[in-house]
């Protein structure tokens, strides 16, 4: 099997990871974690979410987190929004790349953002019109299964992708929101979208949760199918607050370790990642779900 020479990893811990923690995280700690991750070589990072504070109070200080970053790192910073109001907050504080979430499942979209898929698609259209210079990545939630509807059919996935492409979106991330995907399913979905959208200049990526311990196996299959862009969270943090049963993302340190042992470049310093993971545990007292740590990283045999 052939594997890519390099992976492009988007770190989502400061957004997807922190938003799942109920206890308030001091803004200074959020700023510090983001700075440390950039210093470790993370090429791209979701550093804040611009969702209603009533929905996710943990993300209410998005502007302050952005303001705490170094100017030279801002071209690697990504914000998340679910509507025009959130996109405006992101733009006004300096974010120039936006993650916009739409679920492949109608039921999950209603639970997640209190809108139908078509209403979210219209929000996307309004954002494109209001902020034509904003780079937009579509995060297609529940692409591998919905906590409310179960299996999500290919046509439901393609329905949202078709609409996004029509509005000029050229970067699409397929999200295993509840961590239900298995390798054969990943192979099928990746093969399907590559066949259906062959010839279109789309940057495909995967966002895998590790609920059932299959994120690494699913990543391997995706790499074998040609994907090289993945979203992960330091310390394995994460979990959708509107998807019952979802646990954390694949830990960034686990993917970096696996990639480096396979001879695949990431540009990320593994030892610094492990130090950041320990720092998060020390500061927040939260569980670290990554399998690679300071004790196991040297056990090569």
Question: Could you characterize what this model shows?
Answer:
This protein has 301 residues and is an alpha/beta fold. The model has no long low-confidence stretch (mean pLDDT 94). The protein has helices spanning 13-17, 27-39, 62-67, 84-92, 106-113, 117-130, 154-166, 183-196, 215-224, 252-261, 270-284, and strands spanning 8-11, 44-49, 77-81, 97-103, 135-141, 171-176, 203-208, 229-232. Helix 3 (62-67) links the parallel strand 2 and strand 3. It contains 11 helices and 8 strands. It has an 8-stranded parallel barrel, surrounded by 6 helices. It is 39% helix and 15% strand. The protein has one domain: Aldolase class I (TIM Barrel).
**How many β-strands, per DSSP?**
8
Helix percentage? 25-40%
Termini Cα gap: 23 Å
Unreliable sequence segments: none
SSE arrangement, N to C? EHHEHEHEHHEHEHEHEHH
Radius of gyration: 18 Å
Give the strand content.
Answer: 5-15%
Report mean pLDDT, rounded to a whole number: 94
Shape: globular
What topology, given as strand order, has the largest sheet?
1-2-3-4-5-6-7-8
Report the total helices: 11
CATH superfamily, please?
Aldolase class I
Main sheet specs: 8 strands, parallel, barrel
What order do the helices and strands come in, and which of them pair?
Layout: E1 8-11, H1 13-17, H2 27-39, E2 44-49, H3 62-67, E3 77-81, H4 84-92, E4 97-103, H5 106-113, H6 117-130, E5 135-141, H7 154-166, E6 171-176, H8 183-196, E7 203-208, H9 215-224, E8 229-232, H10 252-261, H11 270-284
Parallel strand pairs: 1-2, 1-8, 2-3, 3-4, 4-5, 5-6, 6-7, 7-8
Helix pairs in contact: 2-11, 8-9, 10-11
């Amino acid at each position: 099997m052939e594997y890519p020479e390099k992976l492009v990893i988007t770190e989502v811990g400061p957004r997807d990871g922190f938003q799942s923690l109920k206890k308030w995280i001091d803004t200074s700690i959020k700023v510090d974690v983001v700075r440390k991750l950039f210093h470790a070589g993370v090429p791209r990072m979701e550093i804040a979410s611009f969702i209603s504070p009533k929905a996710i109070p943990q993300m209410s200080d998005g502007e302050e987190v952005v303001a705490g970053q170094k100017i030279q790192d801002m071209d690697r910073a990504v914000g998340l929004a679910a509507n025009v109001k959130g996109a405006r907050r992101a733009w006004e504080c300096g974010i120039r790349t936006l993650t916009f979430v739409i679920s492949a499942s109608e039921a999950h979209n209603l639970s997640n953002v209190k809108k139908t898929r078509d209403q979210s698609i219209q929000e996307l259209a309004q954002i494109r019109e209001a902020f034509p210079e904003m780079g937009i990545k579509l995060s297609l939630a529940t692409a591998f299964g919905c906590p409310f509807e179960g299996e999500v059919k290919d046509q439901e996935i393609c329905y949202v992708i078709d609409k996004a492409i029509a509005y000029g979106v050229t970067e699409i991330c397929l999200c295993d929101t509840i961590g239900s995907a298995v390798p054969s399913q990943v192979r099928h979905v990746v093969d399907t979208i590559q066949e259906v959208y062959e010839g279109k200049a789309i940057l495909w990526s995967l966002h895998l949760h590790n609920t059932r311990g299959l994120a690494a196996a699913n990543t391997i299959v995706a790499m074998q199918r040609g994907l090289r862009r993945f979203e992960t969270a330091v310390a394995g943090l994460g979990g959708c607050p509107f998807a019952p049963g979802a646990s954390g993302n694949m830990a960034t340190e686990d993917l970096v370790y696996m990639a480096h042992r396979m001879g695949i470049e990431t540009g990320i310093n593994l030892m610094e990642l492990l130090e950041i993971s320990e720092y998060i545990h020390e500061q927040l007292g939260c569980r670290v779900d990554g399998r690679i740590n300071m004790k196991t990283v040297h056990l090569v045999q």
